[in-house]
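Trying the structure run again after the queue cleared.
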Amino acid sequence: MASILKLCALFITVSLGSVSADPDPLQDVCVADLASGVKVNGFACKATFNATDFFSDRLAKPGLTNNSMGSLVTTANVEKIPGLNTLGISLARIDYAPGGLNPPHTHPRATETVFVLEGELDVGFITTANVLVSKSIKKGEIFVFPRGLVHFQKNNGKVSAAVISAFNSQLPGTQSIAVTLFAATPPVPDNVLTKAFQVGTKEVEKIKSRLAPKM
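Done. Tokens:
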């Protein structure tokens, strides 16, 4: 396990150290003041900071996957680690139950690279020419999802799986395709969805009811 973690650390350093999707920093550090009312492209800097602003153990433990998708994304971005502000990198851990799915989604502000910690996954992305690029990956292997393209990960194995995801943005953003279209507020009009998906209003309403936020 120690060798896997060392390889993971090397992969993160190499994949994120040379290319960033975010603007370059203009000072050594700019720890995010998450409580500031100042609106900028990123976050305003705190007047003082300490080591805690650059530390997190959020990715140390597996996330709970007892949900409808059988997966959980645990983020380690600037909203969780203020010291990442202006540095152009972030991480996430994704855990998958057997049969679990990280459903089709995009990251509008970052390329994603996943490193498999445990298990095996079927992964893929779809190009703007509607070409599916897919592969099965296992422990110790890496796969890249280009910025902005729809992609997914599915655990078709009989045991749990987990990956570390690296992003070249402090806040890559995530748009889940199904939730974006069927659970937006205010809602996307039914006549838009029925025409786009060539289905009836009843089918649209059924999907909306299943994806609606739980109160």
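The longest strand covers residues 90-96. Worth checking whether this holds up in the mutant runs.
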